[in-house]
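Handout, section B. The chain below has 326 residues.
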Amino acid sequence: MKSFKFLAMSIMISSLLAFTAACGNGGGGAEGGQTEENGGSEEAAALEGEVAIDGSSTVQPIGEAISEEFNMEYADVKAPIGVSGTGGGFERFTAGETDISQASRPIKDEEKAKAEEAGIEYTEFEVAKDGLSVVVNKENDFVDKLSVEDLKKLWIDDGKTKKWSDINPEWPDEEIAFFSPGTDSGTYDYFNEVILEDEQIVKAATLSEDDNVLVKGVTSNPNGIAYFGYAYYLENKDNLKVVPIVNEEGKAVEPTNETVESGDYNPLSRPLYIYVNNASLKDKEQVYEYVNFYLENAGEMAEAVGYVSLPQEDYDEQLKELEGLK
């Protein structure tokens, strides 16, 4: 997601600088100057240390937006965002190496067991929603919708070369080019759970942890197909065609903010999470303040980088839960 990440960050930083300049010009008094000079408060100036974060590349843009803004207020706290993938992030988290793990799927039973063995207690917070987007080449004028069964026929390996005509006899007798997130990705895990159901993904698929590779693959091949997070589709929508998915009610639905939030875009809508080490919340003030800041701003940041925010009351309830963990 590199190109999207940098674009989102550039836009956000420019907005923040403009906002800071406006505040400085409008304040004019000693109080306004003091706020700018001291970074907001004595408490902010006193807070320092690091917050160790790793995990999902899907959640990465939200985390990086949060860290950028958090650093504006708490200049001496470092909160870099690692991108080991959801599985890699949980591996580090359950080993006690990180304070926060960003995830595009819930923690698995085996990961819970590792955390328990290591004596790590944690809390799950939902921060946004995403809709896995299935995309084809812009020139593809025959795929107007796909059902879950169609997706299974497409993506589950059967030992044969896959052609569009295998899915629908009226479609071209052309070999399909598949592009998928890598197996360490939470996006792959979710697709595996909902579509593959632990069956072998088509062996001809190109797997990559870099969403740019998937986009380039589809845009350069008229018979390409891929899937990835909604935010990345939005960033590249001028060069891709998104495919409506037939939901549980039998209606073909495109991923949009409205259909993802309402649940109409099923079964490919999913929640996005952060998992927080409870001991870090209690022992490291910077971690508590970071998570508090995250939940206070997650909705706005999620929308800014292309995901779907939760209802405000959901964030409010989680903030109360967080306060009880301190």
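Note. DSSP finds 15 helices and 13 strands in the chain. Compare this with the example in section A.
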